[in-house]
Every structure is written in structure tokens, then in C-alpha cells.
Design goal:
Blueprint (H helix, E strand, L loop, with lengths): L1 E5 L6 H12 L5 E5 L5 E3 L1 H8 L2 E4 L4 E3 L13 H22 L3 H9 L3 E3 H6 L5 E2 L3 H8 L3 E4 L2 E4 L14 H9 L2 H20 L5 H17 L6 H19 L5 H17 L24 H33 L8 E4 L6 E6 L2 E7 L10 E8 L2 E6 L7
Parallel strand pairs: 1-2, 2-4, 3-5, 4-7, 12-14
Antiparallel strand pairs: 5-6, 8-9, 10-11, 10-13, 11-12, 13-14
Helix pairs in contact: 1-2, 3-4, 7-9, 8-9, 8-12, 10-11, 11-12
Length: 391
């Protein structure tokens, strides 16, 4: 026999149905016990309690209030609420029928948000016992008959051996990662450390640590209802940051990346419902977030400061190089096309990589020998060499 001690305000409907399925398929008796005093089996807890072979509550506990709502506890749009309520009520009706419980009282928890105290629950035939503690519960269960796989079974619970099962270290760790705030902090730290590795190539440790944080964030996201639009913004943020540092501009791509990252964080686990739009009946992906606003603000600052410093440093280096170029005449120097020039690309001249543009907009294949004809700021004007042996 398995005794589940319940104290929950509710949870995700999909997870609740999976728990109910496991209870219904169990080959051993399942007892759900709302415990200790002051505990509740609200919303999802009502389904678990009703699905169990035996339902019990401690004094001064309650159950019910199972009307479907958003993850933030807010009302759903009318059409979605009606669909979800009808589906949930149908499940409770079947559970009530299977466990011989009061179907009307169970439906009231859905359509009227009705909640019941332990005394009201036993008066309305929603539970089997009120017990002060687990030993009293086990004593009350002794001799009860339940049905498993259409077979009647009489329970014998005299002098039982009690084994308490708690969450494993792995389960506690996954539960810790399932906090949206923790997950978002891991995303931020991972992104920053990868950023540091990208700028200061060869440090290795930031890159490895960043990758670990990102993997942990991905692991935590598997336990949460993730919004794919939020993921799309996070991917866009990575692409824009790559664009910015592959071809440094005035920082537009970088700050676009930061904006996309923060928007992605807001949408990643948010409530996607715009109630003030006329006729809105389905979820929309643009409002509310599970992530603390101060974490979002702090994350924005953490991203803006190093990005701004890096862009400023790149601009300073570019100005310094421009000044140096004015005093260097590379005309006539030879080199190699490191990318295809069509007509722009990258060349290697005097062991340095340069942006280059071909004369007369001609195309030069990668690894072709080139000759510099002129220097325009940080861009070399080049043409293809006819001599393959000049390098």
C-alpha cells in the first residue's frame, strides 16, 4: 500500500492527468491523505484525492476549488475556460463513478470553484476518513475492501512496516532547476560566460562554465511549460550577437540582441493572454512573466555593461588602426584570399587579416593569390594575381 501525503495549491493540468493515470493503473492500493492539519488539496490535488483507492484528510484541511486557471492563477479567456472546465469536469465525473464518490459535489469544484473542509468532504461523500495522523489512518484502513483490476481486495494493515520515501538528490536538484527565476539566471550566466570566451578566446574556463550553465538551463526547462516564441527570441539574440562581433558596426545588432534576450526571458514561461483585447478567446504570447522583474532588470544591466564596453573598445581599436593605416602603404603587397571576394571578403596580407574589395567588382575565389592596389581606410583594394608562385 502506498500513502501519498498531499499539501498542494494545484499544478499543471497535463502533469495532473499523468498522475491520475498512474494511480488508476496501479496494481497496489493508493491512499491519498491531505496532511498535516492546515494542508490543502486544491485544484490538481482534488483530482489526485478523487482518483485514489482511499481518500482521507486530517482535521482542519480542505480540498476543491478546481476551476481551471492560468499558471499565475488568473482567469482564462471565456472559450478556453469553457473547454478546459468541461474536460476537467468529465474527468472528475469518471473518477467519482469509479470510486463511488459524490459526482455533483465534485463537479461543483469545477463550475462553482467550490471548496470543502475535511468535515464537509466526509459529509458529502468525497473522502473515506478523517484521521489525525498516519498511524490512525492505517488503523482506520484495516479491513476496508477496494477494487483493483475489477477484483475486490480486503486490506489488512495491522502492525505494518512503514517506509518513508522522500525525493532523491536528483529529484531535489531537478525541482530546484524548475524554478523559472533560477533557470533564467542560468541562461544569463551561461550567455555572459560564452560572451567572455568569445571576446577573450583561449580562456577555456568561461566557455566550459557557460556551456554547463546553458545545459542546466535546458535541463530545467524540460520540467516547465516552455513558450516556443520565447525560445525563438533567445535564438535571435544569439544570432544578432554573432553578427555584431563578426562584423562590428555601431552596436545596433548588439543592443537588438540584448532586447531579444530580455523579451525571450519574459515570454519563456509567461502567461500568454491579453484579456483587454475585444473578443480575445485564445492565449496570446505577449504579456506577463513568471520571472521576477528585478531579475529581468539586473540581467539587462549585466548584459548592457560588458556589451557597451566591448563595442567601445572595438571602436577605439578601429580608430587606432585607421591612424596606423594612414602611415602604411600596402600598395603592391601580395596576399591570399581567405574567403571568396564577390566583390568583398577577407584577405591575408603581411600575416594580418583585412577586409578587402576587388577592383572592377570582379570575383576572386578563396585561396587565390591577390595583389593590393590601394588602401581605403580599413579596406584594401585588391586584384587577382596571375602568378601562382608569388606567395
Amino acid at each position: 500500500m502506498i500513502i501519498i501525503t498531499l499539501d498542494t495549491p494545484g499544478g499543471a493540468y497535463d502533469s495532473t492527468r499523468k498522475i491520475v493515470e498512474d494511480i488508476l493503473a496501479s496494481k497496489v492500493p493508493i491512499v491519498s491523505y491531505v496532511y498535516p492539519s492546515g494542508a490543502q488539496a486544491a485544484s490538481a490535488g482534488t483530482f489526485i484525492l478523487s482518483a485514489s483507492h482511499i481518500a482521507a484528510m486530517a482535521p482542519t484541511t480542505n480540498m476543491g476549488a478546481a476551476t481551471p486557471v492560468t499558471l499565475q492563477g488568473e482567469d482564462l479567456p471565456d472559450t478556453l475556460k469553457s473547454k478546459a472546465s468541461q474536460d476537467a469536469a468529465a474527468l472528475l465525473r469518471e473518477l467519482g463513478k469509479a470510486r463511488k464518490r459524490n459526482i455533483e459535489a465534485l463537479e461543483a469544484t469545477i463550475f462553482d470553484s467550490k471548496a470543502y473542509s475535511s468535515t464537509e468532504s466526509i459529509e458529502n461523500n468525497l473522502i473515506d476518513f478523517i484521521a489525525d495522523d498516519v498511524p490512525e489512518l492505517i488503523k482506520s484502513i484495516n479491513g476496508m475492501e477496494i477494487t483493483i483490476d475489477s477484483q475486490s481486495t480486503k486490506l489488512k494493515s495491522i502492525n505494518p512496516k512503514i517506509e518513508t520515501s522522500k525525493m532523491t538528490l536528483q529529484e531535489n536538484f531537478l525541482n530546484f532547476l524548475a524554478d523559472p527565476n533560477i533557470l533564467f539566471v542560468l541562461l544569463i550566466l551561461g550567455a555572459l560566460l560564452i560572451f567572455v570566451e568569445f571576446i577573450f578566446t583561449g580562456l577555456i574556463v568561461p566557455g566550459i562554465a557557460g556551456a554547463i550553465f546553458l545545459v542546466l538551463a535546458f535541463l530545467g526547462s524540460t520540467n516547465l511549460p516552455v513558450n516556443f516564441i520565447g525560445i525563438g527570441f533567445l535564438i535571435l539574440a544569439a544570432v544578432l550577437m554573432y553578427v555584431e562581433f563578426s562584423a562590428p558596426g555601431i552596436g545596433i545588432a548588439a543592443f537588438g540582441s540584448i532586447s531579444s534576450f530580455l523579451i525571450g526571458g519574459i515570454l519563456l514561461f509567461g502567461n500568454h493572454n491579453i484579456p483587454f483585447l475585444p473578443g480575445a478567446v485564445e492565449p496570446s504570447p505577449f504579456l506577463n512573466s513568471h520571472i521576477n522583474i528585478w531579475i529581468l532588470i539586473s540581467s539587462g544591466i549585466l548584459l548592457v555593461i560588458p556589451t557597451t564596453w566591448t563595442i567601445w573598445d572595438i571602436k577605439r581599436a578601429q580608430k587606432s588602426k585607421k591612424h596606423l593605416v594612414r602611415n602604411i602603404d600596402l600598395s603592391g603587397e601580395t596576399g591570399v584570399a581567405k574567403t571568396i571576394l564577390d566583390p568583398r571578403g577577407t584577405v591575408l596580407v603581411q600575416s594580418e587579416l583585412w577586409s578587402a574589395e576587388t577592383d572592377n567588382n570582379q570575383t576572386i575565389e578563396k585561396d587565390s593569390n591577390i595583389i593590393v592596389s590601394d588602401v581605403d581606410g580599413l579596406t584594401l583594394k585588391v586584384f587577382k594575381s596571375d602568378n601562382d608562385d608569388i606567395i
